[in-house]
Predict the structure.
Amino acid sequence: MTGKPADTIDAFHRGAFHVVQPKGRGHRSGMDAMLLAALVSDDRAVRVADLGSGAGAAGLAVASRLADVEVVLFERSSEMADYARRSILLPGNTHIAGRVSVVEADVTLTAKARNDAGLLDESFHHVIMNPPFNDAGDRRTPDALKAEAHAMTDGLFESWIRTAGAIMIPGGQLSLIARPQSIAEIIDACGRRFGGLEITSIHPRDGENAVRILVTAIKGSRARLSLRAALIMHEEGSHKFSPLVDDFNNGRAAYARL
């Protein structure tokens, strides 16, 4: 008989909130989730949907930084949805628990099935997402939970961004983080649904190639695409984060649109 897999309770925003995560398996949230959360810059009482939330790190980070937001974590995996529920119930998260909820749902659902699952049409001001990023050519992981979280399928961005467009109010903001090689698929999926795309490349150090891109877009906008100044993660010759990135990582600042 095997025991229950071990978990960890991880602090984010310098201890402002915590997340329960599987230890040594599954997708474990870190810098990507915090950068994604930093893309939501809104002082109003708004609703935020975190699609494919996992244990909820990005959505919880938004709730931690913005006192008036309500966040719904949408997660297909029942195991990861349970981690998100456990995270909300942590004693250290009582200050945000009343504004965060979890819905088990497949974000690729369409039409009536999508609404029936709780992904209601035009009900959110912001939608954030960190979609699976491994393609078929990547090395397969024996970790089934991680494989589910990381496995990219054909048309993934189209289906996720379609859902984002459906559940978002006109003028609402889409925010996502992805690998640079997904840029063409993301732009194509935004299509006529979203405009005013702002894309920022993230580089480990000056002179090194980008490892991630941050993308924001506005539902129904006809504004043109903008390529923003690159974000450099680490100071020259060190592993120390640049002051701006450190502020994003620890919830001290938002990466507002231009």
About this structure: Residues 26-249 form a domain with the Rossmann fold fold (CATH 3.40.50.150). The chain has a mean pLDDT of 92. Residues 156-167 form the longest helix (12 residues).
